[in-house]
Design goal:
CATH architecture of the largest domain: 3-Layer(aba) Sandwich
Distance between the termini: 40 Å
CATH topology of the largest domain: Rossmann fold
Number of strands: 12
Mean pLDDT: 83
Radius of gyration: 28 Å
Shape: globular
CATH class of the largest domain: Alpha Beta
Low-confidence stretches: 508-517, 527-539
Number of domains: 3
Number of helices: 23
Helix content: 40-55%
């Protein structure tokens, strides 16, 4: 049974249908009157889901036929709407409404709709999300649910990526977990300019480094003992670290765990007058790199362009290729109703064996909006994981290639992105490469066609191989492009799956830092009715 406030709202709307109001000013007056009758503020949407649903009904469905109102009163439609909202996946309610429409053709349980129900649903979702953004609390709830779903996959993905690193690097497989963490710390310290004096293993579950950390005064360093531990960093590790500080005449000691640090250890470090510091490996990275301003820019850009309220899920397809002859044998279709492009890319992120994915689509299909939408969702999960001390997903870096069309190298392109556009304080380009190889980044190169237009084929191929230099072990690179630059599907596949050699003699795929393990998708069009083009601004 529907909540009372929803039933009351629909009852009031039913009376309006019986006596329709055509004048827009009078219609608004009628809406305000109904809102006040339900004790809802016309200037401020409510904070609970049921009241917000009723509010959206009143604002959007005023004047709709009775059959449409009965559809939105249906308990299955309401439940599926709630599930869609919580998961930020509107395919659930779309599927339920589709089933209801089919059922109604046979039973007429709702009556004659007399309206485009699918478009009405699109408009209702848009209105509901606009109200959500004005009320904020439900919006926060939805983001929390969406973020939790992403974070659940992060730990599994990290473990799978580490297992893959062990297969690719037999020497790493021979090391203990503490030694692997120490090796990662040593590589990171080298990239950010810390110098190494010594390394050793003071206990079975730990490994230590003695490093010189630059101070604020040029040419001056602090001697720091870094103790990397397997599992949770506990008080007994700080006791060991205390003795190592004294024995090596160090200024301070850092205890580093992959993730877990006991509350007592953090408390003791806070009371140690800077003798001890405790860090997860992510927090160790935070000492030198601050991505927060970029993430704030990304989220504000998504809101400014209204992508957060008007983005609609997209379908895609992937040609299944016979590896023996390179010819397509079938097509896998990933429909928007089942998660479509979002779900495919999210699944690709969890596969440590695939480093590069290309997404092809015609002009105006939503490639750039998808890039921003997907990155924003991942960025929100990253911020939430950071605040809660959980394993963090990759940081999504959206790089519009049209902004860097004059760059001739991937290092120049990325340096411009980090140092000039977003003022991300990396000490050097090597810091980016280390983060990329450690699996901390998702590079989204949006608009390869911007580099491909007005140039010859050889230059286009050379540009692709230049971008491919970012596809190193541990990397994830997403590349989008228009289909119009590839008259034949096979030509696009061959280039974007790295089968076309570099046009310059002597430059081969083996000259790249890693094998380019690739796949490509094609976005599939949806009808104007399904996309809700009339209410969605040009992307």
């Amino acid at each position: 049974m529907a909540p009372e406030i929803i039933t009351t709202a629909l009852g009031a709307l039913g009376k309006v249908v019986a006596d329709p109001v055509k004048d827009s000013a009078m219609r608004r007056t009628a809406v305000i009157k109904i809102l006040k009758r339900l004790h809802l503020d016309p200037n401020q949407p409510p904070k609970d889901f049921e009241s917000l649903y009723a509010y959206a009904l009143i604002e959007e469905l005023n004047g709709q036929p009775p059959a449409v109102l009965r559809l939105f009163e249906d308990q299955y439609v309401q439940r599926s709407f709630r599930r869609s909202f919580d998961a930020d996946d509107w395919s659930t309610v779309r599927n339920e409404v589709e089933l209801a429409i089919q059922r109604n053709r046979e039973t007429l349980e709702f009556g004659h709709f007399g309206a485009d129900v699918e478009q009405t649903l699109v408009n209702f979702i848009t209105k509901f999300q606009e109200l959500v953004n004005r009320s904020r609390d439900p919006h926060s709830t939805r983001l929390e649910n969406k973020v939790d779903a992403i974070l659940k996959e992060v730990t599994k993905t990290r473990k799978a990526e580490e297992a893959h690193r062990l297969v690719e690097n037999p020497e790493r497989a021979c090391a203990t977990p503490a030694e692997r963490l120490r090796d990662d710390a040593r590589i990171w310290f080298g990239a950010v300019g810390y110098t190494l004096e010594q390394e050793w293993a003071p206990s079975d579950d730990s490994a230590a480094l003695l490093v010189n950390v630059p101070t604020r005064r040029p040419g001056r360093f602090d001697r720091v003992v870094v103790l990397c531990v397997d599992g949770e960093l506990g008080l007994h590790h700080l006791d060991l670290l205390d003795s190592l500080i004294a024995g090596n005449n160090a200024a301070e000691g850092w205890g580093v765990a992959q993730l877990r640090i006991s509350e007592a250890s953090r408390r003791r470090a806070a009371d140690s007058d800077d003798r001890f510091s405790c860090f997860s490996f992510d927090e160790l990275i935070d000492l030198e790199v601050n991505f927060e301003p970029y993430i704030d820019w990304l989220q504000s850009e998504v809101e400014k362009r209204m992508i957060n309220t008007r983005y609609v899920p997209l379908s895609c397809r992937k040609d299944e290729i016979n590896p023996a002859n390179g010819e397509p044998v079938d097509v896998s279709n990933y429909h928007w109703q089942s998660g479509g492009l979002d779900r495919y890319v999210q699944t690709w992120l969890t596969d440590p064996t695939k480093k590069h994915l290309s997404v092809l689509g015609e002009f105006g299909m939503g490639k750039s909006w998808f890039s921003m939408h997907f990155a924003s969702k991942l960025a929100e999960a990253w911020k939430d994981a950071k605040s809660r001390g959980l394993p963090r997903p990759r940081i999504p870096l959206v790089i519009p290639l049209r902004d860097y069309a004059k760059q001739t190298s991937v290092s120049g392109l990325l340096s411009e992105f980090f140092f000039n556009k977003h003022k991300i304080g990396l000490r050097s380009y090597d810091v980016f490469r280390v983060l990329n190889r450690m699996g901390r980044l998702l590079l989204i190169f949006d608009g390869f066609d911007e580099m491909a237009s007005r140039i010859d084929r050889n230059t286009m191929v050379a540009n692709f191989w230049e971008l491919a230099k970012a596809v190193e072990p541990g990397a994830k690179v997403l590349l989008s492009s228009r289909t119009e630059h590839f008259p034949e599907a096979k030509e696009a596949r061959d280039l974007l799956e790295a089968r076309v050699p570099h046009p310059r003699p002597g430059i081969h795929r083996t000259a790249l830092p890693s094998r380019l393990l690739s796949s490509s998708l094609s976005m599939t069009p949806r009808s104007r009715r399904c996309l809700g083009i009339s209410s969605v601004p040009k992307r």
